[in-house]
Amino acid sequence: MTGPTTDAAAGSGGVRIDHLVTSGTFSLDGGTWEVDNNVWLVGDDTEVYVIDAAHDADAILAAVGDRRLLGVLCTHGHDDHIDAAPAVAERTGAPILLHPEDTVLWEMKHPDRKPDGALADGDTLTVGGTELQVLHTPGHSPGAVCLYAPELGTVFSGDTLFQGGPGATGRSYSSFPVITASIRDRLLTLPSETVVRTGHGDRTTIGAEAPQLDEWIARGH
Fold first, then answer.
1. Residues 77-105: pLDDT tens digits?
2. Whole-model pTM?
3. Alpha helix (H) ranges present in the chain?
């Protein structure tokens, strides 16, 4: 685990982005892989959202500190992005929010604990006076979402868009044509300077990725 670090200049009201990297495994379709995940926290000195509670509840809670946790936002239901969510929620009383179309993936990891609420396309969440807009971006999974913070000039893309291409679509519940349509219609329409904060690896920008869409479609991944 590395971090946490403050990852962006503060927005209005002192809202900032904190970032940590946690390590664990991802399992699906009978395989298991070692992974490092980005965990993002958006908030001010009083309240905060966690985006993707991956692997290490203690590290995530340390990054939250004494702030009120408004919710654990799941960009999708793959186990490496949700494995620590119930522990974080139990220890803070914060709700877990997931798009309902990823319930099947959630239940593979947490069959006895349901999410507390739904994320739906067009929803707006507010923290410290700053909005997070929910964009439904299926393809990597049916209920994948991105969280766009226009005032902070960033989008949290989960595993939908990375530096150099779309998220993986070679496993169950995924679709390459669907993810490329999501990226084209929901993400590449954002301002080119928008910083893309991904679920794994380095950040990028919409402007850096947009010219590569046709190449990704041609190569098929």
1. 999 999 999 999 999 999 999 999 999 99
2. 0.96
3. 57-64, 79-82, 85-92, 103-109, 176-182, 206-209, 213-219
